[in-house]
Specification:
alpha+beta, nine-stranded mixed beta sheet, 9 strands
Length: 234
C-alpha cells in the first residue's frame, strides 16, 4: 500500500511539473501575440485616420455609407508588419445593427502583392467590403480575392466593375494614391491572435455578429472608422 501511495504521489508530482512547464512556455507566447495584436489594432486606427485626412481618398469617404465592413492592412516599421508579396497581418471590422462598428477580427494575408502600380511601396491598404456576401466570406476560415469574392482596385469612377464588386481596394504610400495587385490574395482568420486579444476561444461570428467579446483597446479603431465614415458629410 505504501509503495502504491508513493507511486501515485510521484506520478502526480511529475504531472504537475509537466503542467507547470507547459504554462511557462505557453504564457509568454500568448502574451507576445496579445501585444502584437494590440499594436496591429493601434496601427490600423492610425491608418484610418491617415485616409480620413487625405483628400486623395474622397472616393473612399463617399463609399463609407454603403460599406458593410473594412479590412485594414497597415504598414508599421515599429510593429514590424512589412508587406510585400509574402503578405502580413490585418484586421476586419464590420458595421453592426446600431450603425456602429464591431470589435476587430484578426486576419493573416498571404500571396498579396501590395506594390504600387507605378512601382513604389505601399504603406497602407484599406479594403471596403461592399456586400453581405463579402462579409460572410471573410467570416469563414479562408477566402481568396478574385475567386471566392470579386475585387476592384481604385481609383473608381462609375464603372460597372466597381459597382458590382464585393470588395473595393484603396492603397496609400507617402501621401500618394496608388493601386495594388490584389487578385489571388488569400485572407485567413488568425485564430491565435483573436484568442490572445480577447482572452477566449472565439469565432469571427462571435466577434462581429454576436458581439460576444470586447476589448477596450479597440476603442480608437472604432472611433477612427466612425470619423472616416463622417468625412463624406463635410
Amino acid at each position: 500500500m505504501t509503495s502504491m501511495m508513493e507511486f501515485l504521489k510521484g506520478a502526480m508530482t511529475r504531472a504537475a511539473m509537466v503542467l507547470a512547464c507547459a504554462v511557462a512556455f505557453t504564457a509568454p507566447a500568448h502574451a507576445g501575440r496579445e501585444e502584437k495584436a494590440r499594436d496591429l489594432v493601434d496601427d490600423a486606427a492610425e491608418s484610418l485616420r491617415s485616409f480620413a485626412s487625405d483628400r486623395n481618398f474622397d472616393g473612399l469617404w463617399d463609399l463609407m455609407d454603403e460599406a458593410e465592413a473594412l479590412v485594414v492592412i497597415p504598414r508599421s516599421v515599429r510593429a514590424g508588419f512589412v508587406f510585400g508579396g509574402s503578405g502580413g497581418n490585418g484586421v476586419m471590422i464590420a458595421k453592426n445593427e446600431s450603425g456602429g462598428w464591431s470589435e476587430p477580427v484578426f486576419l493573416r494575408i498571404s500571396s498579396f502583392s501590395l506594390g504600387l502600380q507605378a512601382g513604389g511601396q505601399v504603406s497602407e491598404v484599406v479594403l471596403a467590403v461592399m456586400t453581405d456576401r463579402g462579409v460572410r466570406d471573410l467570416l469563414s476560415s479562408t477566402v481568396k480575392l478574385g475567386a471566392d469574392m470579386s475585387i476592384a482596385v481604385g481609383p473608381f469612377g462609375g464603372g460597372a466593375k466597381a459597382a458590382t464588386s464585393d470588395v473595393l481596394a484603396f492603397s496609400r504610400a507617402q501621401g500618394v494614391y496608388g493601386g495594388i495587385s490584389a487578385e489571388g490574395g488569400v485572407l485567413k482568420v488568425n485564430n491565435n491572435w483573436n484568442e490572445a486579444y480577447y482572452g477566449a476561444e472565439v469565432t469571427p461570428r462571435d466577434v462581429v455578429r454576436r458581439g460576444a467579446v470586447a476589448n477596450p483597446a479597440s476603442g480608437a479603431l472604432k472611433e477612427a472608422a466612425a470619423a472616416l465614415a463622417a468625412m463624406d458629410a463635410r
